[in-house]
Structure formats: C-alpha cells, structure tokens
Amino acid sequence: MNFAVIGAGNGGQCIAGYLSMLGYSVKQQDKNGELIKSLQEKGRIKLKGKVVGEASLDLVTTDVHQVIEDTDIIMVVTTADAHMEVAQEIAPFLQKNQIVILNPGHTGGALEFLHTIIQHGCLNIPVIAETQDLLFSCRAVSVGEVNVSGIKRVMDIASIPSEKASEVVDLFKDIFPQFRARPNVLYTSLNNLGAMVHPVPTLLNAGRIESQQSFDYYSEGITKGIANVMEQMDEERLSIGKALGVDLTSILQWQYEAYGIEADSIYEALTCNESYIGIKAPKTLDSRFLTEDVPCGLVPLVNIGRLLGIEMPVTQSFIETANSLLRKDYRKEGRNLEKLGIKNHLEELMHVIS
Amino acid sequence: MNFAVIGAGNGGQCIAGYLSMLGYSVKQQDKNGELIKSLQEKGRIKLKGKVVGEASLDLVTTDVHQVIEDTDIIMVVTTADAHMEVAQEIAPFLQKNQIVILNPGHTGGALEFLHTIIQHGCLNIPVIAETQDLLFSCRAVSVGEVNVSGIKRVMDIASIPSEKASEVVDLFKDIFPQFRARPNVLYTSLNNLGAMVHPVPTLLNAGRIESQQSFDYYSEGITKGIANVMEQMDEERLSIGKALGVDLTSILQWQYEAYGIEADSIYEALTCNESYIGIKAPKTLDSRFLTEDVPCGLVPLVNIGRLLGIEMPVTQSFIETANSLLRKDYRKEGRNLEKLGIKNHLEELMHVIS
C-alpha cells in the first residue's frame, strides 16, 4: 500500500512523516514551490512530541499528477477551501481502485469532491472518504519538523459509496486504528464542530481581533452571551441531525467525549477546558476560523437545512456577518447545493450519499 | 403655552429645566418614584455648560394623568422602547388640540404612538410629532443638575398629520428655533442614525463588552472591517429612501453636517471625530445601543424595507445576532408592521403618514 499526501502544511507534513516512519512509500505534494523546495533540501520529516521518529519521503513535489499516479491512497490534508481546486486538478488522473481521504472533510467535503471530479472529466470514480477531524493535533515548528501535541482516540470516517467505509477502516487497522466507520458522510459532515466553535467567537470579537489585541481565544474570547449564541447555532445543526435520523454530537457531548469535561454549559466547558489554555485568538479576520469554517462549514449546513425546510436564522446571520466584514459572498463561493452536486431535493442528497 | 415633560432622565430634566427657565409652565412626570421624590426634594432644575440657569417646575409627579391634563404640549423624553407604554397610559386622556412630541422618535415613533393610542381608546387624536434626535447633548451630573455639552444647530421634526409640522415649528420659533419641518415622518424616522452607529460596533465587540473591558467606543471599537459593515447597513437604509423618494442623510454626510468632518470613509470619520473622544463603550450588552436601537431602529427599518420588497440582509443579520445574544425576539417585541399599525401594503403606510 502506498500513499500520496496532498498538502504539506502542519497536518500534511505530520501524516506524511508518520506514514513514512511506518515503512510505507509516501509521495508528498504542495502547490507552494518554496515550501516544497525547503522540504526537498531538508530531505526528511522529523516528528516529536506524542510521536517520535523521522523518515524520508519517496517524492516531494509540486506536481500533483506525479504523486497520484499508481498510488493506492490519496490523503488530502489541505484546508477545506482548497479541496475543490485539488479535485479539479486530479480529476483526469484518478483511478477507480484508488481511495481519496479528505483529512478532514469539514461539511460536505466528499460530496463537493465527488461532484467536482465528475464535472472535470473523471471517468473512473474512486472511493471518496472524509474524516470528521484531523487525527493529529500538530504544528510544524520548522519545515520538516513537526510537534505532535495530541492524537485523538477515535476518528470517525465515512465514504461515498457509503459501504466502503468499513473496508477503509480495515485497510487502516494497523496505521490508524482510531478510524471508526460511520454509516454515511452525513455523520462526519454534520459533526463538523469547528464550524460551531470558530465563527461565532471570532465575529463577536471582531473589533479586538482587527485591532490585533492578543487574547486567549477560549477563556477570554468566549463570554456567557457568546456561548449562548454558540448553543443556539449548535441547536440548529442538531435539528438537521434529528430530521435526518443521524445521531450527532453536541458541543457539550463532544467536550465530554474528547476531553472528559463534564460541564453544565458550553460556557463552562469551553472556558475551563485546560487543553485550550494558551490558544490565542487569530490575529486577523482573514483567518481559517472564518475563511474555512464559514464557506465549508456554515454554508453547506444551511443548504442542507434548506433541503429539509429547517430555518437556521442564527447560522444564516453569521454567514451574512462574515460576508459583510470580509466583503465576500460565501453563499455563492462556499459549498452551496450546486457545489455539492445536489439540485433541490432531499432525495437526491440521500441517493448520492448512499 | 404650557408643557408636560414625560420622562425625567438626562434629556427630560434638561428640557423641563430649559422650558421652565424660559418662563413656561412645566409639569414633569416619570414612573420612577425614587427619582421623582429626589427631584421634588431638590425643588429646582439647574442647567450648566452651554445653557446656564435654574428654574422650578410647576409639578413633579409619577402621575401621568395629572401632567397631561389641560396641557398644550406633551414632550415625551423617554427611551424609544418606552414610547408604547406612555402611549397606552395617556391614550384615554388625550385631547384633539394637544401636541405630542417624541424627543426623538427613533424609527417609527409617531406611527407606533398613533396606532397605540387608537388601540387604547383615544377618541381625540392629537397631533403627534417626532424629532430626528435629541436637541441637547446633556447629562445629569446629579438629580436636578444637568450639564449641557452641546445643542444641535438644526433639528428635523415631522408630524402626523404631516401638514401640522410647520405649525409646530412656528409655535416653537422662540423656544427651539432649531426645529425644521420635514414633509412627513419618513424623513425623521428613516434618518435614525443612532441605529446605524450603535448596534454593529456593539455586537462585533460583544466579547470585550461582556468581559467589561473599558475601551473608547468610536476610536477603539470601530475597525475598518466594522466600518465596512456599518457602511453596508447604511446603504440598505439609504436604498429605502431612494425607493420612497425621501432624501436621507448618509453616515458620512451626517458627520459632515453635524460635526464638520470631511472624510473619505466612515472609518476615518468616526475614529477621527474629536467630539467622540472619551466616549466609552457600554459596560454591558443590556445597553440602549442594543435594547433601544434594535427594536426601535433596525426592526422598523427592515419592516418598512419589506413593504418595498427591499432585502436588507446585513440589517437582518444584526437583529438576529442581538436576538441570540440577548435571548430576545426583537422582531416580535420591536416596532414591526403590526406595532406601526400597517398591515402589508405600502399604500397603507403612505396614507397614514400623509
């Protein structure tokens, strides 16, 4: 089994290094030429922290065609807003027996990926899987040197077609035993908790962020009122799960499951979670907390909600506020139904994810 | 000519004191019993700053019936969210030859007042006027002692029925020569600039405010991104004016007209305006900047927009955000079409304001 890792940021370097350390053949690609040059010069990737070791990769390149040719598994480890571009580029070269894994897919990643490769001339549709989050909490301290601060105990994964997820989990049993197959991509896509905890505090602290004040994102940035709003947005997301019969994790349950936090409120959970101590707020509004979580989180959520006739006024208003602050049109640019390849019917969505 | 002044806050004490100093008979009412007791004990109102003098009032009471009986002019100087309650209380006692002036009306003040008194048994409909803002910038340094820091050079006033505005201006020519008659209450109601400059920075600094950080509301609280959002909200308001053929003042024009600020952008105007130096942000989200400006500013605006088929996504999203932060339903509680006495047709609105 050999791998392509697309994306050489923190997560991409970490996954490429890890797979390589386990003895697999790994080819890594990134479109950032300077980064690739530095990685080539370095020659190896070193992991430290919760995973220790180092290994060299088979190929490090900007050429996406080269890395996916004759590759079994294609790990996409870019920000979610780059998934569509990756899909467009690799569409003509994909093979039916390959597996693409979006790490993570955010909301609607696999759906968007599938629709995009079909639109861009892919005749041999591979399995497309998406994880619910990134398995490793990690940060590259320098190019080729990654500090792994955490490894999640369980990582949900689902695929299109849905029945392939258990095969993927089986394939990975010695690599990522944390993978847990879920019935379909709604289970991963609708459990995008980043979209619940990033845009609201970022926007309701926009003044502070744009003034470049330094403050702890969770313990200082989240007030009781802000936590209230997050809870209301989370309720809108959970109502989609209820309508679809998909069991979703609330922010509060997730805090318990992922961090062992037993709290009565989102405010208490997020501001008292010791794992969050020292995590600073973004220094600019042009941050992934908005540029990724709004178009690839909130936008597909309200679009799926619309298919179900569920009004999501809180989620809608934060899309609008991000649009007006950043002068963007995320409803158009983001993962709307058109980008997900769904016209206007719930039946279509249920058919595609099946 | 004699006066009732309803409301004994900063503005109410100031107006009552001023009218009394000019030699008019003035009766003042407030529902706050303690405040009224203190004012009674004090016996006089003293003005300092841009207006210097002192005078005693004819009556200071909590009984609204007493102050409006046989009174020519009823000045309502409460927060806008109290207008409806005042209207309900005085409805049965009003006389056709009286003039009610809302100082100021915010958005839809006169409309809401008219509808409310009709609904509460008023058979003798008085003239109902609204000013575009409070004439005096003032603050009570202690009960009965008001510092007047500014007097606006021009103050727009309009009335229902519309043709009475010039008579009101004429009546006041020796008292408030700043009054300028406008064709109808749309000119005053749609020029509620507080609603343009208060909710957006307050909500986009919600984290800071709820954490009780002290910062200058204008120079520190308004960033370029926040000013962008204010501009977009202002454009939505101005589009209502365009559709109705009502010439409105933009935030930028207002900064020039009221303060002589010549700036290229709202950001520049609001952060460089020396009159704003030292104005601190509210210490709590339970502030007039939200509790008055959302229900009596943004809510009637989007409702009038709806009559015209004008979408106001930015304004809508800030109503929603205020709702979720404060756990309110301002669309229902605020000045919606029902509260303004308008069903669903623009023609109705145009008829009522004529």
Features:
homodimer, 354 residues, alpha/beta, Rossmann fold, N-(1-d-carboxylethyl)-l-norvaline Dehydrogenase, domain 2, 2 domains, 8-stranded mixed β-sheet, 4-stranded mixed β-sheet, Opine/Lysopine_DH (chains A, B), NAD(P)-bd_dom_sf (chains A, B)
Summarize the structure in short.
Chains A, B: It holds the Pfam family Octopine_DH. With 354 residues, chain A is an alpha/beta fold.
**In total, how many domains does the architecture of chain A comprise?**
2
Seen as an oligomer or otherwise, the chain set is: homodimer
Radius of gyration of chain A: 19 Å
| Approximate strand percentage of chain A | 15-25%
Please describe the biggest sheet of chain A, giving its number of strands, its sense, and whether it closes into a barrel.
Answer: 8 strands, mixed
The strand line-up of the biggest sheet of chain A is 5-2-1-6-7-8-11-12
Q: What is the overall pLDDT average of chain A? A: 96
> Based on the structure given, which CATH architecture of the largest domain in chain A is correct?
3-Layer(aba) Sandwich
CATH superfamily of the largest domain in chain A: NAD(P)-binding Rossmann-like Domain
What best-fitting shape of chain A do the alpha-carbon axes yield?
globular
Instruction: Indicate the CATH class of the largest domain in chain A.
Output: Alpha Beta
How many beta-strand elements of chain A? 12
How far apart the termini of chain A lie comes to: 27 Å
Domain Opine dehydrogenase (chains A, B): 182-325
Keywords (chains A, B): Oxidoreductase
Organism (chains A, B): Cytobacillus mangrovibacter
Pfam family, one (chains A, B): NAD_Gly3P_dh_N
